[in-house]
Specification:
The complex is a heterodimer of chains A (about 400) and B (about 575).
Chain A (H helix, E strand, L loop, with lengths): L1 H18 L11 E8 L5 H20 L3 E3 L2 E11 L4 H13 L4 E4 L4 H8 L6 E3 L16 E3 L4 H12 L5 E7 L2 H16 L3 E8 L7 H9 L4 E5 L2 H13 L6 E3 L6 H6 L4 H4 L3 E5 L8 H14 L3 E6 L2 E4 L6 H17 L4 H7 L3 E3 L5 E3 L13 E7 L2 E4 L15
Chain B lengths: L2 H23 L7 H17 L5 H22 L6 H20 L1 H4 L5 E2 L5 E4 L4 E4 L2 H24 L1 H11 L1 H6 L4 H27 L1 E2 L6 H14 L6 H22 L4 H30 L6 H8 L23 E12 L2 E12 L3 E5 L6 H9 L6 E6 L2 E2 L5 H7 L1 E3 L12 H10 L6 H7 L2 H21 L14 H13 L5 E5 L7 H16 L3 E5 L3 H7 L2 E6 L2 E6 L1 H6 L1 H16 L1
Parallel strand pairs in B: 7-12, 7-13, 10-11, 11-12
Antiparallel strand pairs in B: 1-4, 2-3, 5-6, 5-8, 8-9, 13-14
Helix pairs in contact in B: 1-6, 1-9, 1-10, 1-11, 2-3, 2-4, 2-9, 3-9, 6-7, 6-9, 7-16, 10-11, 11-12, 16-18, 16-19, 19-20
Classes of the chains: A alpha/beta (about 400), B alpha/beta (about 575).
Chain lengths: ~400, ~575
C-alpha cells in the first residue's frame, strides 16, 4: 500500500507542476491579454510571422500608453503558445485563452472550427491569419471567428479569371493535404465557371520527393499551363520536375510559392523559378507604399531582416514581412474594438463587427456582422519570380500599378 | 489544470494503461497504439454523427472493432518477435495516419472532425439524459482507469500473470510446457487495442474533436515512453509515466525560464532532454526506492494468498507408490516417424514405445535424430510422416499445447528457465500446462472450482519441490541456483503437470555426482508414480542406473531396442555409437 501512496503523491506532485506551466499567470483586470496559438515548431515560417506581427503591434500599443478601456489605460500582454500542428492542442489553447480572460485569440487557423466551439460560447474574438479553407468562416455558425488572410475561394476565382483568356488546357497538380484538396475543389469550380478546360487533375502525396511521374502525366495530357496548389515543398518539387525534364510550360501556384522554402530548394537552379507566377494578397495598397514601408521598417528594426539564404545579382534575397501584417492588424483591430466596447465578451465581438482601422499597408481592415472575411477579392494580386525575387505582373489590372517590393 | 485537462489526462492514461497490457504483460514492443486510439475516436465520431448510431453504441462498436483489429494484428505478426513486432506495429501507426491524412473529406484534415461538446447521452428506454460534462468524463475515465489497473493487477497476480511472466522470460520454454503463447499474445494485444480505442473515443467525445495530427505515430511513441518510464512490469507504471509526460512541458518551461531562453521554441528540446534524464535515472531511483520499501509478496506469499491451504499429504497423487499404477500399459507410441530437412532425411521410420512407470533411454551418436524425435513427439515440429499416440489416442495433428494437454511434456537440451521467476513459480508454470481454458476469469472471480484446482496444483508443486530437494529455496530466482539445481528444476517444472510421459533431453549434462544422484532419484520417482520417461542422455552410467529399456538411433533409424545390458553388447550398436565408450560406461 505504501507503493500506492507514493504513486498518488507523485501524481499529485506532477499534476501540480503541470498546472504551473505555460507562461504568465492570470492576473486581475489590469492587462488586456492577447493569446497567439501558432505552429512555432511545426511550421516555423508561419509560426514566426504570426507571433512577430502580433508582438510588434502589442509593443507599439504599449509604448504609446496602451488601450483606453473606459477611463483606464491598460497594457497589452502577449501569451504565445505553440500548438505544433495539433488540433487538440490548438483547442486547449483556446480553452486557456477563455480561462485566462484573454481579449483576443490569434491563430494560424488549425482546428478553427473546434476552436470556435470553445471561443464562441465565451464570446472571445478569434482571428485566423493564415488558413484559407473555404468553409472555416461562417458568420452564423461561428460568430466569433474572423479571418485576416486570403481565402482559397477568392484567390482561385481571381486566378481562373486571370487565366481565362490566356490558356486553353490546364493541368492542376495538388497535394493530398486539406489545403491542397480544398484548393483543387475551388480551382475546378472556378475554371468550370469560366469554361476553361482542365485536362488533368493530379494528386501528389505531400511527402513525395520525386514528382516526375505526376508531372509527366500532366505533360501527356496536353496541358499548356500547370497550376500547382500545394504546400511549399511540393511547389518546389513540381518546378524542379518540370524544368529538369525540359518542359517550359507556364507554371502558376497559390500563395505558398512565396514561401522562402521554394527558393531555397531551387537555389542551385535559379533559372527554373523564372516566370513562376502566384496568386496572393497585395502587399501595398492604393494609398501607395508608404504605410507598408513604415511597417516594414518597424518590423525589421525590431526583428531584423529575414534573409532567406539565397542570392540574386550577387546580393542576398530578403523576404518581406507581408504575412505578418495580418496578426499585426488583428491587434490594432482589438484596440479599436475594445476602445469602442469598453468591455470584453459579446460587446467586444459586436464592436469587432463595427470598427475599421487602417492596416499596416494602408488598406482598410474591417468586418461586418455578415462578413468575417478581412481580405476581399480586390485585395488579390499576382506576383511573378524574376531572379529569385518576385514582383507584380504587368498583365493584370489590379497588379500592374502595384510597386515592386525591395527584396 | 482545468476539469477538461484532468479528464483529457485521464483518457490519455487509459491509453497508456491499455498499452501496458500488451507491453508490460504480453512482453510485446507495440508501437502502434495510436492506430487503435484513432480507430476508437474516429469510429465513434463517424458512427455517431454520420451513421446516426447512439453515442454509447458507436463507442462500443469502435472499441470492439479495435479489439478485433488488435487480434488480427497479433495473428498477422505471430511469427515475429522483438524488434520485428515493434517495426510492424510502427508501420500500422503510419498506415493509419496515412489513411487519415489521405481523406481529409472524411477525416477532417488539419481541422479535424468536430462534434458538439459536451455530448449528451440519451436513453429512451430509461428516460434519462446525461450531459457529459468534463466532471462526468473525470468520473468515467477515472473509473475505466481504476478498473483497468485492478484487472491488470488481478491478472498479474493470478495464474495467467504467471503464464505471461514465463512467456516474457522464455517463450520457447513456456510454450513447451503448454502455455498458449500465441493465444495470450492475441488476447493481450486485442485487450490493449480495445482499451486504447476506448481512450480515443473518450477523448473525442470530451473535446468534440479528433484530428489526424493528434493520433499520429508520435502518440504511439509518447505512450510507449510513458509505459517505459513507469516500468513495464508495474501496474502503476503508466500512471507515473503519463504524470511525468503531462508535467514535463511545465518543468521544461521552468528550466527554459530559469536559463532565460525562449520558452516556446525550447520547450520541445528541453522536454526531450528531461525525458532522457528521467529514463537514465529511472532504474537507480527505483532501486533505491525499493530498498526503502518493504519487499513485495514472495512466491510463498503468492501461494498463501492466492490459493487455499494445500491438500493433505498424499492427496496430490505424486507420492512414491509401492507398485506403479498401470505399469506395463503403453502410454506413448510412435509409429513410422519420418522427418526430413529438404533432401536430408533425419528420421526414417522410427518406432518407439514407452510404458507407464518405465524409463526408456533414447541414445545414439550426434546427429542420429534424438532431439528431432523429441521435438516431433512434443509437437514442436510438425510430423511429416508417421503417427504419435498417447494412451492409444492419436495426437499426431496436435500442436505443443495439445500434446501437453494429452499428457506429454519435454525439457530442453540447453538450460531454458525463466529469469526473474522464483523456483516455486517455475514449478507452478509447469503445473499450469494442463489447466483448461477459462482459468483467467475463474481466477479473477476466485470461483470454488478454481480454488479447489489451485489447491490441488499447489500441493503437487510443494510435493515436487520436496522430493527434488529444491524446497529449501523456493523463493530464490532461477539465476541464483547452481547449474545442477537449474537442470533439476527443468525436470521438476516439466513433471509438474502430472504428465503421462516426460521427455528429458540430456538432463544430466554438467551435473556433479551428488546432483546426478538427486536426478536419478527424481527420475525414478517420476516413473514410480506412473509416468513414462523417455530419456535422451549421453552419460551411459546414468542411463544404466535409471533406464529399463534402451533404444538406439543411428542415421535416423532404430537399430536396436531392449534391456540396456543387452543392447550395449550388440555389435551393430557398438559399431554405430558406443564403441570404446561402451566399455568405459559399463566398466
Amino acid at each position: 500500500m505504501r507503493w500506492v501512496r507514493v504513486a498518488l503523491a507523485a501524481m499529485v506532485a506532477a499534476s501540480a507542476v503541470g498546472a504551473c506551466r505555460s507562461g504568465p499567470t492570470a492576473s486581475g483586470g489590469d492587462v488586456v491579454r492577447v493569446m497567439v496559438s501558432a505552429p512555432l515548431t511545426r511550421s516555423p515560417w508561419v509560426g514566426e510571422f504570426v507571433e512577430r506581427g502580433a508582438r510588434l503591434a502589442v509593443e507599439e500599443i504599449n509604448a504609446a500608453g496602451g488601450i483606453e478601456v473606459g477611463d483606464t489605460m491598460r497594457q497589452l500582454e502577449l501569451d504565445v503558445r505553440d500548438h505544433a500542428g495539433s488540433a487538440q492542442t490548438a483547442q486547449a489553447h483556446a480553452r486557456a485563452a477563455v480561462e485566462r480572460g484573454a481579449a483576443l485569440l490569434i491563430s494560424d487557423g488549425v482546428a478553427a472550427t473546434a476552436v470556435a466551439q470553445v471561443t464562441g460560447p465565451a464570446a472571445l474574438p478569434t482571428v485566423i491569419t493564415f488558413e484559407g479553407g473555404t468553409d472555416l468562416v461562417d458568420e452564423d455558425a461561428r460568430p466569433t471567428l474572423f479571418r485576416l488572410a486570403p481565402a482559397n475561394r477568392p484567390m482561385t476565382m481571381r486566378l481562373a479569371d486571370y487565366l481565362a483568356d490566356k490558356v486553353t488546357k490546364i493541368a492542376v497538380l495538388h497535394d493530398d493535404t486539406s489545403y491542397g484538396k480544398d484548393g483543387q475543389r475551388e480551382l475546378r469550380a472556378a475554371f468550370a465557371r469560366n469554361e476553361t478546360a482542365v485536362v488533368a487533375t493530379v494528386e501528389v502525396p505531400a511527402g513525395a520527393s520525386d514528382v516526375a511521374p505526376q508531372v509527366l502525366r500532366a505533360r501527356r495530357s496536353g496541358a499548356d499551363t500547370v497550376v500547382v496548389w500545394a504546400r511549399a515543398p511540393l511547389v518546389a518539387a513540381v518546378v524542379q520536375a518540370a524544368r529538369s525534364s525540359g518542359w517550359s510550360v507556364p507554371l502558376y501556384a497559390g500563395p505558398t510559392a512565396e514561401d522562402p522554402l521554394v527558393r531555397q530548394q531551387l537555389a542551385d537552379h535559379p533559372e527554373w523559378i523564372e516566370g513562376l507566377t502566384f496568386v496572393s494578397f497585395r502587399i501595398t495598397a492604393e494609398v501607395g507604399p508608404e504605410p507598408w514601408e513604415k511597417f516594414r521598417t518597424a518590423f525589421e528594426t525590431r526583428f531584423g531582416r529575414d534573409e532567406i539564404g539565397v542570392t540574386a545579382g550577387g546580393r542576398p534575397v530578403v523576404q518581406p514581412p507581408d504575412w505578418a501584417m495580418y496578426p499585426y492588424d488583428a491587434v490594432y483591430l482589438l484596440k479599436a474594438a475594445l476602445e469602442r466596447s469598453d468591455a470584453l465578451g459579446q460587446p467586444l465581438v459586436d464592436a469587432f463587427n463595427a470598427v475599421f482601422i487602417t492596416g499596416a499597408n494602408g488598406d482598410e481592415r474591417s468586418f461586418g456582422p455578415q462578413n468575417h472575411e478581412g481580405v476581399s477579392q480586390d485585395d488579390m494580386y499576382f506576383g511573378r519570380f524574376a531572379g529569385m525575387r518576385f514582383r507584380p505582373v504587368d498583365d493584370d489590372i489590379l497588379s500592374v500599378n502595384l510597386p515592386p517590393i525591395p527584396q | 489544470m482545468s476539469a477538461i485537462d484532468v479528464a483529457q489526462a485521464l483518457w490519455l492514461l487509459l491509453a497508456a494503461l491499455g498499452l501496458n497490457i500488451a507491453v508490460g504483460l504480453g512482453g510485446q514492443p507495440i508501437l502502434g497504439q495510436s492506430a487503435f486510439v484513432a480507430l476508437g475516436g474516429y469510429g465513434t465520431v463517424l458512427l455517431a454523427d454520420r451513421a446516426d448510431l447512439p453515442l454509447g453504441v458507436a463507442a462500443a462498436v469502435a472499441v470492439l472493432g479495435a479489439g478485433l483489429l488488435g487480434w488480427l494484428v497479433a495473428v498477422g505478426s505471430s511469427r515475429l518477435r522483438g524488434a520485428h513486432v515493434a517495426l510492424s506495429t510502427w508501420a500500422l501507426a503510419w498506415l493509419a495516419f496515412a489513411v487519415l491524412t489521405a481523406f481529409p473529406g472524411l477525416y477532417g484534415g488539419s481541422q479535424g472532425l468536430v462534434r458538439p461538446s459536451p455530448a449528451r447521452l440519451v436513453s429512451r428506454f430509461l428516460g434519462v439524459e446525461v450531459v457529459l460534462t468534463p466532471l462526468w468524463h473525470i468520473v468515467i475515465a477515472g473509473t475505466f482507469c481504476a478498473a483497468t489497473m485492478v484487472a491488470t493487477r488481478s491478472i498479474v497476480r493470478g495464474p495467467v500473470g504467471l503464464d505471461l511472466a514465463a512467456l516474457r522470460a522464455g517463450p520457447a520454454a513456456a510454450e513447451s510446457l503448454g502455455i498458449p503463447g500465441a493465444a495470450l499474445r492475441r488476447s493481450t494485444l486485442a485487450a490493449s487495442a480495445a482499451v486504447g480505442a476506448l481512450s480515443g473515443a473518450g477523448t473525442a467525445v470530451l473535446l468534440g474533436l479528433i484530428a489526424p495530427a493528434d493520433v499520429s505515430p508520435l502518440l504511439s511513441v509518447q505512450l510507449y515512453v510513458a509505459v517505459l518510464i513507469g516500468g513495464t512490469a508495474s501496474v502503476l507504471g503508466p500512471l507515473f509515466g503519463v504524470a511525468l509526460l503531462v508535467a514535463l512541458p511545465g518543468i521544461a518551461d521552468v528550466v527554459s525560464g530559469t536559463a532565460d531562453i525562449s520558452v516556446e521554441r525550447s520547450r520541445g528540446v528541453v522536454t526531450a532532454a528531461l525525458l532522457v534524464v528521467v529514463l537514465a535515472l529511472r532504474d537507480p531511483v527505483v532501486r533505491r526506492l525499493r530498498a526503502l520499501l518493504p519487499r513485495r509478496g514472495t512466491a510463498e506469499d503468492r501461494a498463501a494468498s492466492s490459493v487455499p491451504s494445500p491438500a493433505p499429504e498424499g492427496d496430490g497423487g505424486h507420492e512414491r507408490a509401492g507398485s506403479v499404477q498401470g505399469e506395463g500399459r503403453v502410454v506413448l507410441q510412435a509409429r513410422g516417424l519420418r522427418h526430413a530437412y529438404g533432401d536430408i532425411v533425419v528420421l526414417d521410420g522410427v518406432d518407439l514405445d514407452v510404458c507407464a512407470g518405465e524409463v526408456v533411454a533414447l541414445v545414439g551418436p550426434n546427429g542420429s535424430g534424438k532431439t528431432t524425435t523429441l521435438r516431433l513427439l512434443a509437437g514442436a515440429t510438425p510430423v511429416q510422416g508417421g503417427s504419435v499416440l498417447i494412451e492409444g489416442r492419436d495426437v499426431t495433428g496436435l500442436d505443443q499445447r495439445g500434446r501437453v494437454l494429452a499428457g506429454i511434456v519435454r525439457t530442453f537440451q540447453h538450460t531454458a528457465l525463466f529469469p526473474g521467476l522464483s523456483v516455486a513459480d517455475h514449478v507452478r508454470v509447469g503445473a499450469r500446462g494442463t489447466e483448461r481454458g477459462g482459468v483467467a476469469w475463474r481466477a479473477v472471480l476466485r470461483t470454488p472450482s478454481w480454488r479447489a484446482a489451485a489447491a490441488h496444483s499447489e500441493a503437487v508443486v510443494q510435493s515436487l519441490l520436496q522430493r527434488s530437494g529444491l524446497a529449501a529455496r523456493p523463493a530464490a530466482t532461477s539465476e541464483a541456483l547452481v547449474h545442477g539445481d537449474q537442470r533439476l528444476l527443468q525436470v521438476v517444472r516439466a513433471a509438474a503437470s502430472s504428465p503421462r510421459v516426460v521427455m528429458l533431453d540430456e538432463p544430466a549434462a554438467g551435473m556433479s555426482q551428488e546432483e546426478l544422484g538427486r536426478l536419478r532419484d527424481l527420475v525414478l520417482d517420476l516413473a514410480g508414480n506412473g509416468a513414462g520417461v523417455l530419456l535422451v542422455e549421453h552419460d551411459m552410467r546414468f542411463v544404466a542406473a535409471v533406464a529399463d529399456r534402451m533404444t538406439v538411433l543411428a542415421g535416423g533409424r532404430v537399430i536396436a531396442t531392449g534391456r540396456p545390458a543387452d543392447v550395449r553388447t550388440r555389435p551393430e550398436v557398438r559399431a554405430a555409437y558406443l564403441g570404446g565408450s561402451a566399455q568405459e560406461g559399463s566398466s
